[in-house]
Amino acid sequence: MESAAALAKELGRCNEVSDFYRRASELYRECGRSQPASDALAKGASALEEKAPEEAIKMYDEACSLLEEDGKEQMAFDLYRTAAALYVKLEKYSDAASFFLRLGTAADKCNAINSQCKAYLSAIIIYLYAHDFQQAQKCYNDCSEVQAFLNSDQNRCATKLLSAYEEGDAEEVKRIGQSSAFNHLDHVVIRLARKLPTGDLQAIKKDAAADDGEEALDDDDLT
What we know:
GO terms for molecular function: soluble NSF attachment protein activity; syntaxin binding. It is a peripheral membrane protein. It is found in: Membrane. This is Gamma-soluble NSF attachment protein. Keywords: ER-Golgi transport, Membrane, Protein transport, Transport. The protein has 13 helices and no strands. By secondary structure, the protein is mainly α. Helix 2 packs antiparallel against helix 3. The chain is elongated and about 60 Å long.
């Protein structure tokens, strides 16, 4: 089946590429072999990235799910990253961030703390690049409930970055984005970090100030 899929790729028959690799995956699954089943889907996804990226994404997603269902999340780490990178290429930043968060969850189950923290920081950077400061802030708050991330270098980096955004300090955002703190992240994320800030920092600063004002009013409300 995989040989037939490779031939279909050479002939430019994308639908057949997907069908053959999916069929190969099904046969492996019938034999209870989740790893080769996932590998077949991943090969199909890789073959389709250029010609049919949406189908490739689906196959990466299914490949990850197979390993998750079998408790082999650690074997899926590279697949999460590859799918996220493809989403970035397609400019679907929210989906890319979601895949990094999924990687973080998988890493948590495997006690892979470094991978977990890098995944969370990657998601925050992607939201910032996509001009979605509120989602970046929410992501940061949610991830900071995880003790491993709260005590990490990646958390400290995210804290500084978000603070610079709230202060409307474009130069500080650039300085942080260019720092070595991001050097151990995936290349696709490093490239986005180097391009920060994007969006209207002054609007973010005003919103942050307004939120602080509302909190102050709440504290003073004794009725």
